[in-house]
Write a structure and sequence with these properties.
424 residues, alpha+beta, Beta-Lactamase, 5-stranded antiparallel β-sheet, 4-stranded antiparallel β-sheet, 9 helices, 12 strands, 54% helix
């Protein structure tokens, strides 16, 4: 069933071609998957760098603004004669020492803080130090109910508290009553050098440019870029909640790729996150496409090769090569009687030429055989006539002529034997 030229020669060539093209496509697809993953990683890095650039630029501007407001607040305190520790006062439900500036107690006195924010916007506060607590006694930071946040304390979990406890200044983003602020904190010292409180200025971190950049920070399908500190998520895009951001960047199962770019001067970190599965899926999409294209191309080329070889080679041969070889072998062995089947639709094929050669050889052998027989008969007649005419005469010339005639007769006998080997 599968012994013909198509299946012994043409089909293996087509199959090998298909396999080689498919293997090449698979190899190229592996490279393409890796290349696509590299491109995705580069896109992620570019977006992260873009967000970082937006934030750093904004943060630098806000830091300059914060330092300018702090300079104005300190200038007002100094211009009014400096600060001193005052008597104990009750602010909201807390009892703390008042801070006296220019002879006026600041508990419930908002002149200085409001003056600073009237000129530079933002918020300002004077804290009174009470042991390890810092209590707001004058502020224009508002609580959720719209009232001034007097009597509230500086959150002890913030990096600002850690710095101020050691009498160090702090500039950065902190959480104030649940909202992020660009802030500046500096120790407030009495005229005698005693650490009596804190001077604060800050701006609520409402950054439309950063928010817009984060909204455009889709990484693959579900990845994102967010800004976090050591305690909570500060900024994140709208399609993912702060809780989800925190859970995903913890990456407990290792299924997400997490990149962190710290902003140490603000105590923040820019975090990019995207699922490894989506990265691999992007690569596989490209890789599978190349493999499919390679297999289809290989199949088309293989089928084309199959039909071209089949049509062209068999057309030239006029039949199966194995059968043509058998015909030629029989003719070479002298069998001119073999019946050669020729396709009438292929008159210029090898089979047709072999058939013509067979007929010509047949005719040649027949002609030679007939000529040899005729010459042999004439030779015998010559010998008989010679014997009758010469009789007893045996001169040398006659003997030589007779010898030549017998030689011709012998040659014709050999020729007849050779021709006799052909089967017609």
């Amino acid at each position: 069933m599968f012994s013909g030229f198509k299946f012994q020669v043409v089909l293996p060539v087509a199959v090998i071609t298909l396999v080689l093209i498919s293997l090449s496509a698979i190899g190229f697809s592996v490279w393409a998957m890796q290349h696509e993953q590299t491109l995705v990683r580069q896109q992620v890095a570019d977006k992260q760098n873009s967000i970082q650039g937006v934030f750093v630029t904004t943060a630098t501007l806000m830091q300059d603004r914060t330092r300018a407001s702090m300079a104005l607040l300190k200038e007002q305190i100094s211009a009014r004669g400096g600060a001193d520790r005052g008597a104990a006062v009750t602010v909201a439900d807390k009892t703390v020492n008042d801070i006296v500036i220019g002879g006026k107690g600041q508990a419930g006195n908002f002149d200085i803080v409001d003056y600073v924010t009237r000129l530079n916007k933002g918020t300002a506060t004077i804290f009174s130090k009470d042991g390890d607590r810092f209590v707001r006694i004058a502020t224009n930071v508002l609580k959720d109910d719209g009232n001034r946040a007097v009597g509230t304390e500086l959150n002890k979990t913030t990096p600002a508290y850690a710095a101020l406890k050691g009498e160090d200044a702090f500039y950065g983003v902190v959480d104030i009553l649940g909202n992020p602020y660009f802030t500046g904190y500096e120790p407030l010292l009495a005229r005698n050098g005693e650490f009596i409180g804190i001077a604060y200025v800050g701006y609520k971190a409402e950054l439309p440019v950063l928010s817009q950049a984060l909204e455009q920070s889709h990484l693959l399908k579900s990845g994102f870029v967010a800004v976090v500190d050591s305690h909570k998520v500060r900024y994140s895009p709208s399609w993912v909640s702060a809780e989800q951001v925190q859970r995903l960047i913890d990456n407990t199962d290792g299924s997400w790729v997490i990149n962190r770019s710290p902003l140490p001067e603000w105590g923040l970190t820019i975090v990019s996150a995207y699922p490894m599965a989506e990265l691999r899926a992007e690569g596989r999409t490209v890789g599978y496409g190349i493999v499919l294209a390679g297999v289809v191309l290989g199949a088309v080329i293989s089928m084309t090769l199959f039909f071209l070889l089949d049509r062209q080679v068999l057309h030239l041969l006029g039949g199966e090569p194995r059968i043509a070889a058998q015909y030629m072998k029989k003719i070479a062995e002298g069998d001119l009687a073999v019946e050669i089947a020729v396709d009438r639709e292929q008159p210029d094929s090898l089979m047709a030429s072999l058939k013509v050669m067979q007929l010509k050889l047949k005719n040649l052998v027949l002609a030679v055989r007939g000529g040899a027989a005729e010459v042999s008969a004439q030779s015998h007649k010559f010998e008989a006539a010679y014997a009758t005419l010469q009789g007893p005469r045996k001169d040398a010339s006659s003997q030589e002529l007779l010898r030549q005639v017998k030689g011709v007769s012998h040659t014709l006998t050999l020729l007849e034997k050779s021709i006799g080997r052909f089967r017609l």
